[in-house]
Amino acid sequence: MIAISELYRHPVKAHGCEALSAVTLAQGKTMPWDRTWAVAHEMAKFDDANPNWASCVNFSRGAKAPELMAIKVTMHEADNTITFTHPSLGSLTINPDLESDGAKLVAWTKPIMPSDRAASHRIVRAPNRGMTDTPFPSISINSHDSLAAVSNDAGVELSPLRWRGNIWIKGTAPWDEFNWIGHYARIGSALLRIVEPITRCPATTANPETGKRDVDTLKILSETYGHKDFGVYAEVVESGRIKVGDTLEIL
Asked: Phi-psi bin for 211: left (phi > 0), alpha (psi -120 to 50), beta?
C-alpha cells in the first residue's frame, strides 16, 4: 500500500516550508498557498504591471543562496501573514502583499544572501497560481523509499526538506514513481496526472537545518543513477481533499 506520509507548502518560493495534515486540491491549480509569492532579484525580468508566471531564474532561491534552505514558515491565512524563522536570523512576521513588508523580508534575509549574486529586490506574485518551477501549475510527489536509496548512497540520512516537495509517499519500490509518468493517481477524493520527472538543482545540496552545503546530491544522482531527477510533477485533474494517511492508487 502506498500511503501519504507528509504534506508541505512553501508560501514564498525558496523561503521556507510548512507541514500540513490535510489540504483541498483544486483542478488545474497548484497546492493552495504554495509558491504564491516569490522574491524577485534586482536583475529579474518580471513585469509588475502585467504579472504572470515566470521562470525560477528571476527569483532568489536556494540554488544560489543555500542558507535560504534553513528558513521555516507558518502561514496565518486569516490575516494573510507569514512568520519566518531562521537559525541565525531569528523570526519575522509580514503580510507579503504589502510593499513595505516585502522590503522587511528582503532586509531580514540580506545577511545570508551571497554578495556575488543578484540581490533580492521585492516580493511578487502571479494571479491565480503558484510560482512553481514548471510553466503548468504543478504539485510535486516525492518518495521516502527513493530518498532512503539516495541516503544509503550518501552514507547519511537526508532530510526530505532538501527536496522542497508537496506530497511525500511511502510504501513503493525506490524510483517506481518514474514508471507512473503519463498515468493517473487517486489520492483521497482528488485525481492527479503524473506529468514528468523533477530535475534537481544545487538547492538540494544544502542541509535544511543549517543552510550549509554538505552533501553533493546531484553528483550522487548523476554518478549512481545516470540522471539528476528526484520525484515527479503532477497536475490536478479532479479537485478533492487529501490528507496524511491517505492511500495513493495508480490507475
From this structure: left
- pLDDT value of residue 128: 87
Distances (CA, A) of 1 to 45, 222, 237: 45, 29, 23
Single-letter residue type at 240 = G
Question: Residue 106's closest CA among 118, 49, 116, 163?
Answer: 118
Contacts of 174 (CB under 8 A, 6+ apart): 143, 145, 146, 148, 149
Rounded alpha-carbon distances, angstroms, from residue 204 to 29, 158, 171, 220, 244:
25, 10, 23, 11, 24
Helices (H), the chain: 99-109, 144-154, 217-225
70 and 95 co-located in one domain:
yes
What pLDDT sits at residue 242? 98
Average pLDDT of adjacent 10-residue blocks, the chain of 251 residues: 98 98 98 97 94 95 97 96 97 97 98 94 93 97 98 98 98 98 98 98 97 97 98 98 98 96
- Count how many domains the chain has: 2
pTM over 0.70: yes
CB 150 within 8 A of CB 179: no
In CATH, what number is assigned to the domain containing residue 161? 2.40.33.20
